[in-house]
Write a structure and sequence with these properties.
It is a single chain. This protein is of the alpha+beta class. It has helices spanning 3-17, 36-41, 51-56, 66-73, 114-135, 155-161, 165-171, 182-194, 245-298, 303-330, 342-353, 379-397, 452-462; strands at residues 21-25, 31-34, 77-82, 89-99, 102-112, 140-145, 150-153, 203-212, 218-230, 233-243, 334-340, 362-368, 375-377, 401-409, 415-422, 466-472, 476-484, 494-497. Helix 11 (342-353) packs across helix 12 (379-397) and helix 12 (379-397) packs antiparallel against helix 13 (452-462).
Length: 499
């Protein structure tokens, strides 16, 4: 056997070993030769058949037939489509076989793409699963390429920032979500990502920073981020962040509750102390007043001495008034708890006060929500509460300003909310934590005892409600009282001791 024959034999064996269909067709599309794989597939009936009739059941060549393209151009061509017989994805490549300058035949290689398709479908399923996982994650996920262009933006990120996913993927750059100098903030985060101090190179853990929503709102977040590398080259960054607004709101609510609890405990202790002190002062004050009055009535004294005694009586009476308020603040009485109309109680208190000279230059704005459910309360104490708050507001404005009274349902629909506001000078933030403490007052000496707001606080606590204050210096103050709505089992009269 010559070397040429040996080479041909090896070549034929290679074609037979090739696990794809290899056929040789004439320029008129008739199959003149085939490898073993093609012969076995067609049970030896392939030679002499017209290729488009056998493979595709067509009377003429396919629209994208690579053999037609090869005959036209003399260059190799390829076609991808499904066989009519098995409906399997195929890739058919066609190569010209020349005899001198003429195409004598064409070699066609038919690749079965089903295995590749299975791999591609598996990849697509994995990609879809990963995409859905990212899009539906509880925390926000944002990824950006190294130019800063956002390339991943999930639903949680959209809800937190206000940007839609389409908006973010279309035109959002990562520095646009940072406040102030966004580019500088983005560069600072990249600097930390490339360092070793915040979780290792390429990682950033538990980093607290603010981002900015579409509407300009600052959003505190806890950020975990990393750099995505490809063969040591930075390709992108991805960040996972948790919106801290709700957590911070709950923390603030808890801190307020703790402050209120401490205030309640302090008030209870001060109430007991106040009651003891008041009882100890009552008798000597009575004696001072009595004997000073006797001296005026029974002795012929100079006018200056009589004036001094009257001053003693006046100051003793002021002390007696303070003692009386202390006893009222601290005493244990029985309260008549009944369903009460808050709007009616507030209107009645306002009616008694608004004609006093203190209110002459004060504008009163009253917004009472109709149809409010009754609250379970002692009407005398509620009247006392409203009187203290309204007088306090009027005195803060020094006979000039706007008094606001408003009632409404609280958000949870189990409480009625009463707001008493003024346009006075406001309360210094350093003083604000102390305003409900007994004897604490910002009024001039002799103008107040410092017990009015303490009693208001005590009344609200006794009714199972809450009182808080919001104040802006130079703009005004608002006291907000919430009282529980009377329940279905609390419609009758009852007498309960004040705690």
């Amino acid at each position: 056997m010559s070397s040429d024959d040996g080479q041909k034999k090896i070549l034929l064996q290679a074609l037979d070993a090739f696990r794809h269909d290899v056929v040789i067709i004439s320029p008129d599309f008739r199959i003149v030769a085939a490898n073993r794989h093609a012969e076995e597939k067609w049970d030896g009936r392939i030679i002499g058949q017209v290729c488009h009739s056998l493979l595709y059941r067509r009377e003429s060549p396919c629209n994208a037939c690579p053999a037609v393209e090869v005959m036209r151009t003399g260059l190799p061509a390829e076609m991808k489509q499904r066989l009519a017989v098995y409906q399997l994805p195929r890739s058919v490549s066609c190569f010209p076989i020349f005899a001198q300058d003429r195409i004598e035949a064409l070699a066609m290689v038919d690749y079965d793409l089903s295995r590749m398709t299975n791999l591609e479908e598996g990849y697509q399923r994995a990609n879809t699963f990963l995409r859905n996982t990212l899009l539906n994650a509880v925390d926000g996920i944002i990824a950006a390429d190294m130019t800063g262009k956002v390339i991943i933006f999930n639903q949680a990120a959209a809800e937190a920032t206000g940007y839609s996913i389409a908006e973010a993927l279309d035109a959002l750059y990562i520095w646009q979500i940072y406040p102030e100098d966004g580019r500088q903030n983005a560069r600072e985060i990249m600097r930390q990502l490339r360092g070793e101090s915040y979780g290792g190179k390429g990682k950033l853990k538990r980093y607290h920073i603010d981002i900015v929503g579409k509407n300009g709102e600052r959003i505190p977040i806890s950020l975990y981020a990393s750099i995505i590398y490809e063969e040591e080259r930075e390709m992108a960054t991805i960040g996972f962040f948790h919106d801290l607004r709700e957590r911070l709101r709950m923390k603030a609510e808890l801190e307020r509750a703790q402050v209120q609890l401490l205030q309640a405990e302090k008030m209870a202790s001060l109430g007991k102390l106040a009651a003891g002190v008041a009882h100890q002062l009552n008798n000597p004050l009575g004696s001072i007043t009595l004997f000073a009055q006797l001296m005026i009535e029974e002795h012929d004294l100079p006018a200056a001495a009589r004036e001094d005694l009257r001053r003693i009586i006046h100051d003793a009476e002021r002390c007696r008034d303070t003692v009386r308020e202390l006893l009222e603040f601290a005493r244990q009485t029985r309260q008549q708890m009944q369903p009460q109309d808050i709007n009616r109680a507030l209107s009645r208190t306002l009616f008694l006060l608004k004609n006093q000279s203190l209110f002459q230059n004060i504008e009163i704005a009253c917004t009472l929500k109709e149809g409010l459910p009754p609250v379970r309360a002692d009407i005398q104490q509620i009247n006392h509460l409203f009187m203290n708050l309204i007088l306090n507001a009027a005195q803060a404005m020094r006979n000039h300003g706007r008094l606001g009274l408003k009632t409404r349902m609280a958000q949870d629909a189990t409480q009625v909310c009463i707001e008493v506001s003024d346009t006075g000078p406001g309360i210094d933030p350093q003083i604000l934590p102390h305003i409900f403490e007994p004897f604490f007052t910002t009024k001039d000496p002799g103008e107040g005892t410092g017990l009015g707001l303490s009693m208001a606080y005590s009344i609200v606590q006794n009714h199972g409600g809450q009182i808080r204050v919001e104040s802006i210096p130079d703009q005004g103050t608002t006291f907000i009282v919430t009282l529980p709505v009377a329940g279905p089992n609390n419609k009758g009269d009852s007498s309960e001791p004040i705690a």
